[in-house]
Amino acid sequence: MKRITLILFAVLATVSCKKVTPEQQITRIGTYFSNLEAPMAGQVERFDGSKRIDFLTLNLAKDLDSEDIWTLENAGENSLIAEFPGKEKELKRYTLISASLDDPAACAAVIDLMKAFKELKIRPRNTVRTLFYSTAADSTGYSGLHAVNEEIYDSHEIYEFGIEISSCDTLPKRTFVIEENPMFASQLIETIQPYFLDGGYKFVKGTFPNPEWPLKLATYRYAIDPGSYKEDLKAIATIAMLLI
């Protein structure tokens, strides 16, 4: 219940900010992505395997200035994690933004999202960790995501939620699937839905906890459409700006 109160307080504080209103910030985000001349999607697709991890690492370190980047090995493959400190470091609270290494469009979206935050000088309250995970599993079914969940558990770190980006066609378009405590999900949707009406975006409740998702934290899913990549990035950046 404490975590729910903290996140809702953060949302309400953001949407009531007098210095830069949410509408102004959303407009800035929309303008940024409308003018995005070289989205990362095409670049990430040129690399596979370890070369993709090398390329993402270069972008995280050189273009995004992450000073804390590491890998977790499982079943002979690595998952890649990078950290971006938030404004309230003393809280020691984290938000995870993730994509499968097998999904170049989703990996590109994570990089483009973090670049937008850097260029627009949007610094979240929480520390953000980006995760590019391996789907490889060992003979027991232990996957890259299981290894990440084990690290989270062993470190006793507090993750408020995660944003999972994919380009799969099994999720409805322009729809955020909120895998969260049902009561909080209802409050969250009611609070942020008004900022997405113009784009026709929807929010639906997903199963929580999701038995098929190894990460034991609330997860907000969104499937990007290559045909509306920039618009979808605006929507993801908006929900991240409001919640993180």
Mean pLDDT: 89
Q: Runs with pLDDT <50, length 5+?
A: none
Helix content: 40-55%
How many beta-strand elements? Answer: 8
> What structural class do you assign from the helix and strand content?
alpha/beta
- Which of globular, elongated, flat, extended, rod-shaped describes the shape? globular
**What can be said about the biggest beta sheet?**
8 strands, mixed
Terminal Cα separation, in Å?
18 Å
How many H/I helical runs? 8
Neighbour order of strands in the largest sheet: 1-2-4-3-5-8-6-7
Indicate the radius of gyration in whole angstroms. Answer: 17 Å
Please trace the helix and strand order, writing H or E for each element.
HHHHEEEHEHEEHEEH
The percent range for strand residues is 15-25%
Structure description:
The protein has 244 residues and is of the alpha/beta class. It is 41% helix and 22% strand. It is built from eight helices and eight strands, in the order ααααβββαβαββαββα. It has an eight-stranded mixed β-sheet, with helices on both faces. Strand 6 (175-179), helix 7 and strand 7 (202-205) form a beta-alpha-beta unit. Helix 1 runs parallel beside helix 7 (182-192). It is globular, with a radius of gyration of 17 Å. The two termini are 18 Å apart.
